[in-house]
Design goal:
The protein is mainly α. Helices cover 67% and strands 0% of the residues.
């Protein structure tokens, strides 16, 4: 049986943490406030769709 190194897993994990911790300057930056706003708007839209508000609006406006 081959011997396994006990410390290799810790070293690999440290390397991955270091790799994913760096921020790329080319990446899209989205603020926390934008994420919250999108989630709230999406949730309100789903809530209104579940209660038939969207279909009522389309029928009332004639669209």
């Amino acid at each position: 049986m081959a011997k396994e190194k006990k410390s290799s897993g810790i070293q690999q994990a440290a390397g991955l943490i270091r790799y994913f911790d760096e921020e790329s300057e080319d990446a899209i930056q989205i603020s926390k406030g934008s994420i919250y706003a999108i989630c709230i708007i999406f949730s309100v839209g789903i809530y209104l769709a579940n209660y038939g508000v969207w279909s009522w609006m389309w029928a009332t406006l004639g669209l």
